[in-house]
Specification:
Elements: H1 3-18, E1 20-22, E2 30-41, H2 56-67, H3 74-78, H4 85-93, H5 106-112, H6 114-133, H7 135-142, H8 148-154, E3 155-156, E4 162-163, H9 165-175, E5 183-185, E6 202-210, E7 213-224, H10 228-247, E8 250-264, H11 268-275, E9 284-287, E10 302-305
Parallel strand pairs: 7-8
Antiparallel strand pairs: 1-2, 2-8, 3-4, 5-6, 6-7, 9-10
GO molecular function, one term: thymidylate synthase activity
Protein name: Thymidylate synthase
GO cellular component, one term: cytosol
Length: 319
């Protein structure tokens, strides 16, 4: 049994047993707890869940997108990654430029109305094609505003300057490994109200060096346990591996601290199905030894070996 994956399954069981019924922004409803922490020993294996299949390429391409400071979904679509589509699509269908069927509340309506689902899928297909082929359309509707990549790499100050937080942390890890200031934040109060398609859920992370190992702690203000958290665990584990390689250290722990940790009411059946499954051994991450900089990483530089899992479990996303 892997202690790492059990941390996640224990979280699911805790929220189902102890959670509070709450309303939420999406209108879906959740079971929620406030304040929870998981610790993953990255020496044990790469924490890609085995009780349901997780697509590593989606996680890796999204992280590469962040590392490049990119905020436009075109790169993601070019790599067959659709995990940010709904937020960009929402901006388009709510704009004056949109001409087509009413897409109000499309996230929920597609689940209960087959005729609407067909219209939604046709509109989404058209949207994606235009993002990939029309530069002007992509610039206007593919960009999500100053989300993670922008804040990590190009934080804008009140003086009109920019701060590359991630590069600064890499430099401080190399020169002052015992510093308590190895932090990167995506939570920019000035940008959130009007510019971001979605305020950052994984809001702040900090690195720590001890015994020749690099550890990372993430504070996640809002945690969609079934759909989002498995991706967040693997994404920040991957980031820790890449940062450790960059600064010449081994990997230590990934510590995941959650604020509002919730299971959506329309995910409870899926969570219970996952809890009935047995775990497999965790896989291993392999990073191209010839990789120079973390900022030059490509999908081909990252491979998961020995990954055995149960089939995926589908669930609707709340937008």
């Amino acid at each position: 049994m892997t202690v790492n994956e059990q941390q996640y399954l224990d979280l699911c069981q805790h929220v189902l047993a102890k959670g509070h019924r709450k309303s939420d922004r999406t209108g879906t409803g959740t079971m929620s707890v406030f304040g929870y922490q998981m610790r993953f020993d990255l020496q044990e294996g790469f924490p890609l869940l085995t009780t349901k299949k997780i697509n590593f390429n989606l996680i890796a391409s999204e992280l590469i997108w962040f590392l490049r400071g990119d905020t436009n979904i075109r790169y993601l679509l070019e790599n067959n990654n659709n995990i940010w589509n709904e937020w960009a699509f929402k901006r388009w269908v709510e704009s004056a430029s949109y001409r087509g069927p009413d897409m109000t509340d499309f996230g929920r309506r597609q689940l209960v109305d087959d005729s609407f689902k067909a219209a939604y899928q046709a509109a989404m297909t058209r949207f994606k094609e235009q993002i990939l082929t029309d530069d002007q359309f992509a610039a206007e509707f593919g960009d999500l505003g100053p989300v993670y990549g922008k804040q990590w790499r190009h934080w804008e100050t009140s003086r009109g300057e920019t701060i590359d937080q991630l590069s600064d942390v890499i430099a401080s890890l190399k020169t002052s490994p015992d510093s308590r200031r190895h932090l990167v934040t995506a939570w920019n109060p000035e940008d959130i109200p009007s510019n971001m398609a979605l305020p950052p859920c994984h809001a702040l992370f900090q690195f720590y060096v001890a015994d020749g190992k690099l550890s990372c702690q993430l504070y996640q203000r809002s945690a969609d346990i079934f759909l989002g958290v498995p991706f967040n665990i693997a994404s920040y584990a991957l980031l820790t591996h890449l940062m450790a390689k960059e600064v010449g250290l081994e990997v230590g722990e990934f510590i995941h601290t959650l604020g509002d940790a919730h299971i959506y009411s329309n995910h409870e059946t899926q969570v219970n199905e996952q809890l009935r499954r047995q775990m497999y051994e965790l896989p291993t991450l392999k990073i191209n030894e010839q990789l120079g900089s973390i900022f030059d990483v490509e999908l081909a530089d990252l491979k998961i070996e020995g990954y055995q899992s149960h089939p995926p479990i589908k669930a609707p996303i709340a937008v």
